[in-house]
């Protein structure tokens, strides 16, 4: 692109699902001849893809909009917080346009109004895999929008609507294009991956000369045939999730499950309105580990939910000690505007919430340290993320990018991002591993 290319500034906030929305918008813009930039001064207009899930995310989004206005002056707002147009306009009345989540056409129309598209329709400016904001060797694969669950602490269905699954042939064509572009790891994301296809009645579509049902198990099987790492995120513990375990045992998909349990106390789960809250999760976890000994389990939890008693919290800590999860994230409860849980009584004082958060993280830190120590001497596969001057940073099959741990390799190993190497674990701390690559004879 030459210096005459009209450049659009783009700021993407929030979760990987929002990042995928940003990639789709940037792909459309590139196909129309626009360029992109991270420099306010180079941008004709700045698009801010916002997050509005919790108050801290809302504050960050509103602050970023203000910064973009101050630095550039022309700002278009989209994303989850865009569903609250009046909230944005009340604080930032000079924004050019406000659109809600995954409203791609509305964003493009607003950009056209602010910066008319370049007049060169014959240039092919879009790579086959589209524009991506992740490194070249991994990519997020969003399989659906929205959610049918009505968890009392969550407003995602209000922001993004009910579940809308992508037909499986559409998902597989995107995955194929990503793999052909050099992607070595596909991270499957949605609001509720386990529910994929239920809104389409699991309708089959043709791909690769055969009919494939729009169902999470068949999706995992088909993705595994591309010969890259396939990592499943946001998997609710419905009974049919057990069908994924044999695929892990066979090496079709990674031995990794990201399951947002959110709590363990039955009374808290009931108040949260969590789906599959009555599943015998501990029994299933023990069976999963029996079937796939190296499976890595990640989850997230909320402490300080309204009505959470000390007994409820102790129940959660004991559950964690028995479950022995590999990776855990913990959030302090926030009274999100519009959430049904705000109407519940017996809100937990902030100082108690902080104390419980610290206790949970200390408990999980000890669990993580013990589990990683057990891996010393094991041989593992490592995908390389970055090569620094002093160390090579990668991840094991049990580590997702950005949210889990790292594996550190010596810099004298001749490696590049995206390489997958066999290595022996030499050292571990609470969250990370250190390993040495193996020669062919050592593998």
Write up what this structure looks like.
The structure is a single chain. This protein has about 450 residues and is α/β, with parallel strands linked by helices. It contains 12 helices and 20 strands. The longest helix is centred in the C-terminal third of the chain and has 24 residues, at about 350-375. The relative contact order is 0.08.
Secondary structural class: alpha/beta
The CATH level-2 architecture of the largest domain is identified as Alpha-Beta Horseshoe
- Report the biggest beta sheet as strand number plus sense, adding barrel if it closes: 5 strands, parallel
Number of strands: 20
Distance between the termini: 46 Å
Would you tell me the overall average pLDDT? 88
Per CATH, the class of the largest domain reads Alpha Beta
Tell me the domain tally: 3
Q: Within the CATH hierarchy, at the fold level, what is the topology of the largest domain?
A: pyruvate-formate lyase- activating enzyme
Which strand order do you get reading across the main beta sheet? 2-1-3-4-5
The Cα radius of gyration reads 23 Å
Ordered list of secondary-structure elements with their pairings:
Layout: E1 7-12, H1 16-31, E2 35-37, E3 45-50, H2 55-71, E4 75-79, H3 85-91, E5 97-98, H4 104-114, E6 138-142, E7 144-145, H5 156-160, E8 164-165, H6 168-180, E9 185-189, E10 204-207, E11 210-213, H7 216-224, E12 229-232, H8 244-249, E13 256-258, H9 266-272, H10 281-291, E14 296-303, H11 310-323, E15 327-332, H12 350-373, E16 379-387, E17 392-396, E18 407-409, E19 420-428, E20 433-437
Parallel strand pairs: 1-2, 1-3, 3-4, 4-5, 6-9, 9-12, 13-14, 14-15, 18-20
Antiparallel strand pairs: 7-8, 10-11, 16-17, 16-19, 17-18, 19-20
Helix pairs in contact: 11-12
């Amino acid at each position: 692109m030459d210096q005459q290319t009209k450049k659009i500034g783009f700021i993407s906030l929030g979760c990987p699902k929002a990042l995928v929305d940003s990639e789709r918008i940037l792909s459309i813009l590139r196909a129309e001849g626009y360029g992109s930039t991270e420099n306010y001064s180079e941008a004709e207009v700045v698009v801010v893809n916002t997050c509005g899930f919790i108050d801290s995310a809302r504050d960050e989004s509103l602050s970023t909009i203000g910064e973009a206005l101050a630095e550039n002056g022309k700002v278009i707002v989209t994303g989850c917080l865009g569903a609250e147009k009046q909230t944005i306009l009340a604080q930032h009345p000079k924004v050019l346009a406000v659109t809600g989540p995954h409203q791609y056409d509305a964003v493009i129309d607003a950009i056209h109004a602010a910066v008319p598209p370049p007049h060169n329709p014959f240039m092919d400016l879009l790579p086959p895999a589209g524009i991506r904001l992740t490194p070249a060797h991994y990519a997020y694969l969003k399989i659906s929008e929205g959610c049918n669950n009505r968890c009392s602490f969550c407003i995602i269905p209000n922001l993004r609507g009910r579940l809308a699954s992508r037909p499986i042939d559409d998902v597989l064509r995107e995955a194929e294009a990503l793999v052909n572009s050099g992607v070595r790891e596909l991270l499957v994301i949605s609001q509720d991956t386990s529910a994929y296809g239920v809104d389409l009645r699991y309708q089959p579509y043709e791909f690769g000369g055969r009919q494939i049902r729009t169902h999470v198990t068949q999706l995992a099987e088909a993705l595994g045939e591309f010969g890259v790492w396939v990592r499943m995120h946001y998997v609710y513990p419905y009974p049919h999730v057990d069908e994924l375990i044999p695929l892990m045992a066979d090496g079709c998909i990674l031995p990794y499950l990201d399951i947002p349990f959110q709590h363990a106390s039955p009374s808290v789960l009931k108040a949260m309105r969590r789906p599959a809250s009555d599943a015998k999760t501990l029994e299933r976890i023990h069976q999963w580990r029996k079937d796939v000994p190296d499976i890595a389990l990640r989850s997230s939890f909320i402490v300080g939910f309204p009505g959470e008693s000390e007994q409820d919290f102790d129940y959660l800590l004991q559950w964690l000690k028995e479950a022995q999860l590999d990776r855990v994230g913990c959030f302090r409860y926030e009274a999100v505007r519009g959430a049904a849980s705000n109407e519940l009584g017996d809100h937990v004082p902030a100082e108690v919430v902080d104390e419980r958060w610290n206790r949970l993280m200390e408990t999980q830190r000890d669990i993580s340290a013990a589990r990683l120590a057990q891996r010393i001497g094991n041989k593992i596969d490592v995908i390389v993320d970055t090569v620094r001057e002093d160390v090579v940073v990668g991840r094991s099959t049990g580590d997702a990018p950005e949210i889990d741990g790292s594996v550190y390799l010596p810099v004298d190993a001749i490696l590049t991002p995206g390489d997958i190497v066999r290595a022996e674990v030499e050292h571990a701390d609470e969250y990370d591993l250190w390993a040495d690559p193996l020669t062919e004879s050592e593998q």
